[in-house]
Amino acid sequence: MKKILLILFSLSLLSLTTISNAKSIRIGTEGAYPPWNNLNSAGELEGAEIDFGNEACARMGVDCEWVTQDWDGIIPALLQGKYDIIIAGMSITEERKEKVNFTNGYMTDGARFAVLKDSGLADLNIAGMAKVNLNNAGGKEQAAIGQLIAAMNGSTVCVQSSTIHQNFLEKHMSGAVKVKLYQAVDDHNLDLAAGRCDAILADVGSIIDFMESDGGVDVAFTGPTFSGGVFGDGVGGAVRKEDTDIVEMWNAAIAEMSADGTTAEITKKWFGRDISM
Hints:
This protein folds into 2 domains: 17-108 and 233-271, D-Maltodextrin-Binding Protein, domain 2 (3-Layer(aba) Sandwich), CATH 3.40.190; 111-231, D-Maltodextrin-Binding Protein, domain 2, CATH 3.40.190. Helices cover 38% and strands 21% of the residues. It is built from 10 helices and 14 strands. It has helices spanning 2-17, 48-60, 74-79, 94-97, 139-152, 164-172, 185-193, 204-211, 244-259, 262-271, and strands at residues 24-29, 32-33, 37-39, 45-46, 63-68, 85-86, 101-102, 111-116, 131-133, 156-160, 178-182, 199-203, 219-227, 238-239. The N and C termini lie far apart (54 Å). Mean pLDDT is 91; it is low at 1-20.
């Protein structure tokens, strides 16, 4: 009986130290959200988060194993054990915290609308504000949203489903615009270029990447850059709630890479500007 108890105790210790002594980390990403993460023409993952994740793994002394997953199922697949952490441009929001834990934020980028240059909606000056922070939004911020609703009333706005961008439209512009949902940003980008959308709403960096492609030459930003509120507190890595060791490992690497400027350099490479936290 004592032997059996000793074996069970040893197994329990092993399970508690498996993560901290791990030789590899499985990272879930979408692979369809440039310049955050994307599959290039050779079918290889590239982007700011791929460089970031690989560097973090090197500093933790573990091998990275990247796993691609459609966005709609990215959190369920984490909870089912398909990978250990999500590094996929995922904003830290209260809604998501109900299901997963997050590392500290490592990058942040605002969200903005984009339209066709000749649509009549380009370069809207909304309440004279270039940036609207929805945390503790006051009169000016509410006025900006009101003016945006008036300008875009009846328009079709296309967004990726299960995102903070969909959440913004549903919370702040419900009934004023028609919301069309897509599985991937590339799909709504194509529909905007083809005139099947009046506007898209996405991260600034993602839209800039689209504008710099052949398909996005006729696309322009409009209105202010939004942050805070439903847009969350920056981008972080999502893990299962029980995997506290993974959070600690990544937070240590995130802090080190932030302090020595590595994350800043990675974002400058892929975004053309520093969006590190």
